[in-house]
Amino acid sequence: MNAATLNSSRLWAYLQLLRPANIVTAWADILAGFAASGCIVFISLSSSDLISLAWLLLATTGLYGGGIVFNDVFDAEIDAIERPERPIPSGRASRQGASILGGLLLSAGILAASQVSWLSATLGCGIAAAAVLYDAYSKHNPIFGPLNMGLCRGGNLMLGVSAVSPMVSNYWFLALIPIVYIAAITTLSRGEVHGGKSSTGGITLILIGMVIAALLGLSLLENYHLLAVLPFVILLAVRVLLPFIKAVSQPSPENIRTAVRAGVLSLIVLDATVAAGFASLPYGLLILCLLPISIALSQIFAVT
């Protein structure tokens, strides 16, 4: 193998560590939070709003990318047994190199968030800390692990809301929706390698039901439009419930991996639902356009 081919192979390995399909779902969090912040898209979106949105999208790219990279860093020994094809255990990427990459990405994410406001920077620091805590310690805890991962996604949604800082205190409860949703996916994902348990699957379905109820319940807010939300809720239910029910009834590793993959990618549908409720149906459809991009990337790069 010549030097050019070797360098190309290493670059591809580090790109695999980032799991690009997942990063696209993080962009959807920011766009949904941006809608909830009250920034009016398609009508009077100012240049300063666009600049803030760009910084926040860059911030979540660094924060989420760094968190995913550190996940592989801390799981190197386990992956060597269960997933030897992953970049680090296969030797295509070094653990030290991945650690440096993860640190740079997290730092860049916090720095980008600080360009919006101190509150955004604080949220960025919290997301980075929660991601590393999950990767290093909590992911193997059956209770704290799912909640910790959900906290990362809930914080990411609030990062989008921080485009207008005062709105974070007004809509802090929106973070509970991705927290519960991710807790459901993380709980189910524990059976990806060896299969799952019916009791775990039952808890997962209950949590998903709570998420759907919450999305509909937000219609109690004056500025949340239920009619715009309904098509997205139906799509979310179809995309998530069908594979989840199959994984619960037949908890094989393959069915669980399929359900988890559908759940992760459907974060975009979840965010599109929230965005349509707060902004408009067209804005929700705009975010939904990220779904085929994420699905296409998932055919090339691993999602879990």
From TrEMBL:
Subcellular location: Membrane
Keyword Oxidoreductase part of the UniProt annotation: no
UniProt xrefs under Pfam families: UbiA (PF01040)
Transmembrane segments: 21-45, 51-74, 118-137, 171-189, 201-221, 227-248, 285-303
Source species, domain of life: Bacteria
Keywords, comma-separated and alphabetical: Membrane, Transmembrane, Transmembrane helix
Matching CDD domains: PT_UbiA_1
Record Gene3D superfamilies: UbiA prenyltransferase (1.10.357.140)
Keyword Kinase (UniProt): no
InterPro entries registered for this protein in UniProt: Prenyltransferase_related, UbiA_prenyltransferase, UbiA_sf
Protein name: Polyprenyltransferase
